[in-house]
Write a structure and sequence with these properties.
The complex is a heterodimer of chains A (188) and B (240). With 188 residues, chain A is an all-alpha fold. Chain A has a single domain, classed as RNA polymerase sigma factor, region 2, helix turn helix motif (Rna Polymerase Sigma Factor, Chain: A, Orthogonal Bundle). In chain A, 73% of the residues lie in helices and 0% in strands. The radius of gyration of chain A is 18 Å and the shape is globular. Chain B is mainly alpha-helical and 240 residues long. Chain B has one domain. Chain B starts with a helix and ends with a helix.
Amino acid sequence: MYPNSDLEMLMARYQQGDFTAATALVHRLSPQLHRFFVVQFASREDADDLLQETWLRIHEARHTYRAGEPVLPWFYAIARHIRVDHYRRASRTVAREQRLREAHEAAAAPAAESGGTPDLEALLASLPESQREVIEMLKVAGMSLEEVARATSSSVGSVKQKAHRAYERLRERLSGMGLGKGRTGELR
Amino acid sequence: MRDKEIDEILKQAAQAPHNVDPALLDRIGKSIGSSLRPVRPLPPAWELAGGLFLICAGVALAGAARAGFFGIQALSVLERAAIFPTLAILIWLGATTAAGEMIPGSRRRAAPSTLLAAGCLVLLVVFAGLFRDYRTEHFVSLGAPCLAAGLLHAIPAALAIWLVLRRGLAVNPAAAGLMVGALAGLAGVSMLELHCANLEAPHVMVWHTAVVPVSAAAGALLGWAARSRAGSGARQRQVR
């Protein structure tokens, strides 16, 4: 995670045509954007494609970022837009969707059975899409409620409500996995 | 299990490294670098909104000037004082929202569909409060031309709005289209209020107000179609 002011400065230089700033942004933000896609049930291969598509769109729309505005919501709003488009395309192909789900369930199972902390993707797998993206932005990208609201084109109240519901589901899931009170010391 | 414990588990899970193929990052970097040049950032949102406001006002005034200012002449001072400031406020709200829809990660006061519904409701309440003539003579034959005139004026307004906003990126083209359509529809309603001298409540409430949702629906449909087309186009242009 990087300070927002640092990213804002790189973004301003990217708008001025600075290649070093552009590649720095690509290297700094790609892992978290890639993870954003993987968490949303994309296979790694699909996440690679979505990441490329996202940077293509970011590049085309870089003039729409305005200095002084929070930078992460701007990136995530575009990434989310790409993911929603991808989801719509994928949902048209039912068999493909089924394959993705099966692949993800298979990936999630061993982590859950092992008794340790499941990986993030497996942990969030039980959440509905809208709650998953909110938790990912809040806890992985480290965005504030206001920034998540901007990225998801919703209100702060709605983000809070989704996060609250997500925590309720996670509590049930983690309790079922035996990761409750008194076991946090065992977590890796 | 407490929230803090869940926080801790999420924090630990998020700390696990997530690597991206360095070759992929290099490919993205090269692809960006090949077309990298300085760009001019969009103007501030208030400036865009101001431009949209002027477009709506200009279209309404130009339309009424061409067709005649019979409507405003027929209105009392109270009616003018209630209708035109209401329209101006709604246009300003629509303009700021439409400008925001074209900038990714903008703060959103309310969803465009909510604003559309609220705007139509406000217009209906204002018209219902001001006009007491509930005759419905020649309801359709007099109303349909008003709706058509309002929509005809919404078209140039929508085109001009699109010209102002075309440099933006609508992350939700259907919502952006809905807002642009609604805003253009408000320009059409403003023209009708300046021009149409028919002050029967059912006529104004139905045929004048209808310009806004019809124009918004057309805008949303165009936005949705643009999204479908852009989606398939972007897929083809993907860097490999």
